[in-house]
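Fold this complex.
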Amino acid sequence: MSRVDLPMGGRDAMRSPLSGMSRRRSIWERIHLDPWLLGLLLVLMLAGLGVLYSAGGQSLDLVIGQAWRFGVALVVMVVVAQFSPATLYRWALPAYLVGVLMLVAVEVMGDMGMGAQRWLVIPGVIRFQPSEMMKLAMPLVVSAWLCRHPLPPRLRELVVCVALVGVPVMLIAGQPDLGTSLLVATSAVFVILLAGLSWRIICALTLMMAAALPLLWMNMHDYQRQRVLTLLNPQSDPLGAGWNIIQSTTALGSGGLWGKGWLQGTQSQLEFLPERHTDFIVAVLGEEFGLVGMLVFLLLYLLIVCRGLWLASTAQETFGRLLAGSIILTFFIYVFVNIGMVSGILPVVGVPLPLVSFGGTSSVTLLAGFGILMAIHSHRRLLPR
Amino acid sequence: MRQQRDTLKNPQHELRVFRIRALMALVVVLLLTGLLGGRLFYLQVVQHEMYSTRSEKNRVRVEPIPPTRGLIYDRNGKLLAENRPTYNLTLVRERVDDLDDTLSLLVDILELPEDKIEAFRERSRQRQRPFQPALLMSDLTEEQIARLAVNRHRLPGVEVEAQLLRYYPDAKLMSHVLGYVGRINSEELKSLDSGNYAATHFIGKTGVERQYEKQLHGEAGLRKVETNALGRALRELDHTDPKPGKDLTLTLDKPLQKHAVELLDGRRGAIVAIAPQTGGILAMASVPGFDSNQFVTGIDVASYQALREDPNLPLFNRATRGNYPAGSTIKPFMAFAGLREGVITPSETIYDPGYYQLPNDDRRYRNWLRWGHGRVDLERALEVSNNTYFYSLAHDLGIDRIHDNLARFGFGQRTAYDVYGQSAALLPSREWKRERFGEPWYPGETLSVGIGQGYLQISPLQLATATAVLANRGDWVQPRLAAEVGDEPVPVDLPDTPADIELTHDRWWEVIISGMEAVMSGNEGTARRSGVGLEYRMAGKSGTAQVFSLGKNEEYNAEELKERLRDHALFTAFAPVEDPQIAVSVIVENAGGGSSHAAGLARSMTDFWLLERNAGKPREAAGAATESPSSEQGDAQ
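Structure:
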């Protein structure tokens, strides 16, 4: 028993998933996909395209472009789902190191004045955002590290985790992209919490973080502070940073219970809303479909999270469990931060609404994450009961 | 069970812990979703009514109105920076169907080079809110306006907008001191007060324009307009006037500034003139300069590159940022240090054989006159600029006391009240050398500092400042460029003024000053040729700063050295001696000796100020309360 539960020792067994005495495998298990999760995601994406059509000024081009991106992202998901957790385990550290190197490269090139600081550009070949890759590499490497030791993690292992998390997070925060850096850090925190970190340490760390808040404030850029201050009183700066929040809450609030109807939102259609097809798409959704529409979307997201958590807790290996749990919880955090930002309870941090906001890179990362989730679930070795 | 866990992994336990944690996470997820749901319920049901009304009213748009930038005058009320009406090309992105088409059409119509398309695209992104017009191009010509008017129907979203544009009537004279405004770049956009700058396209980049950006800019106004369904403004509902920026009156005198620039014409150098009693900077010239108006409308890459790569560094403000060896101009201040520390008295003499030797050292530190000046006292040492005297003085003082006393005159510090980008230059000390090189201070280095060479570096502004303090017999006034901001005069006594300097005997100031007067008028004065026919009493000191260091016992031959390796000529002076109206420092790069190549310029400056600008009129303009005899002499000429 203990042999197969060690992720390292279990490698041989994992290479030949059919070696155990098996019951008949369903078609879904053969292609390593989870029908429930896939179904929910597809519904969400289709609904998202509908909202995007309205938010993007009824531009069919925009919707088709987004559909193509979804197509690419789905292919990535299917491909990723074919890897066994053992392969993912082996790739964790290299992926992480490459990610950190690319972040450093971005930093250096930014210093040399070659283009914007978040992108790694090889002219004519590729434009790539290394921080996006970190969103997956981070939970991967932390899970891989923690599951090498008995759980719950002790302080010694935790110190290594802090180093693993700290370097890329600092680099991303320095780009400056505070939002993404916090989300990357959050994904690592989820792994550690799910690994069963003792409550004593959790409390101590929480207190330390609270004490470090003033330090963070001092190191923030002026525009970042402005965003926090504007959140507290948006009316203080109606032409500047407060504009977004005022416009988005007005759009949401005027939607009412049932909404103004598809393509009927005045705020959205009259273009008062900034970034209405990207980060602020929820405002369009809330204005045109009302509270009911919003609750339907929230329910969809909730179902995806529940299914994800279920897949995570049925995984056989600790590595897979931690990774899957972190990915699905981080997904929820995206949803929470985005809707929280648009409805004015969180500062504007530039996080898109997963699978609804326009944008290619983030959907690829998200669906690759779901691919990992499915891979972990579908590569279970089928042992006799 | 607990003990077992320390050595071995326990899969059952790990699974159990995970499931408990996952369940907790689910509870938190549900709570947070509930929070979002609650917030949405609050917004969409409880406050629906209010937002519904607000949404109806949202056909009303708030537009910012830029404030008019404050004007800049010289001390006589002559306009130095004004706002000229010009026409700009702007673009509202939301109203443009196809940006690519529009931009290439624009470039066609205006007959601009193809590469402007990318520049336009970049500029069209630089804005803060939807429907804010982005500035594509300023200062359109009549012909361009006409071409755009003809093609208007093909260019929705493109507008020609009237705007006030900064204009410097005397750009070439004032380029460094005034600085210029330029288009706000994306970096600046991040750190700006986005509300106040919502309609502003330009910001002060250097000089006075930068230093007084806040006061010159003013406060943005608001205009509430009703829009139609497409967002186009229909009528104005409400209007808050912008608060225009404050006008600035500088202490600069335009004719004197012009005179200084003309004196330096064709050379590289700087002249700074200060009114000692008020600290007002009368002239601050750095030559060569540039046309600051080019920077307002957006300088093209080739011209900018040419300016940047010009070996004469036209963009470099030599007056405030140039660091030069002080040469012998440091000697009056060394004399002060010696008197104050009791190392010398005015009457004490030394014998100068033509060189100085440190005890136990063979090396000869040479006087510039090979056979020496014989017996010299303090006054004569200043008059003939004797090196041996000051080597000996420097050795007796030591670097620590030299440092402390030179610091009293503002060397090594930024003492000007409102001069943007002033350099602290370098006043060396033992600690500095240890930090910089990790080496101790050597006695020979003290000798170099004693005659203004070695590590010591000064800026022309610092030299003029120190001379003004000397002219005031130790009373400090901070040099400043602004005389009035809005209607508020800048007070003479500012809170950060350095402490006044005192000497044991007040008459010792006169000893130093009469040594400097002898430089101009004495039989042996180094600048006696520039002192011929003086109609007022003038005190000065020449300096020659070595750019090229000579080997031991080598001789200097100006002919053989390339122009760039020739010495810098320095001169510092003030006049009249008994009632100082002007202190002036002159630096001419690679000109040769200061007494022959800079003294004449300083004399020309004091002549111009005392005899032409202030001839026969009360001294108020020059900053003095009383009239002095010299102005009457001026009438006689």
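Confidence is low (pLDDT under 50) at residues 1-5, 550-554, 618-637 of chain B.
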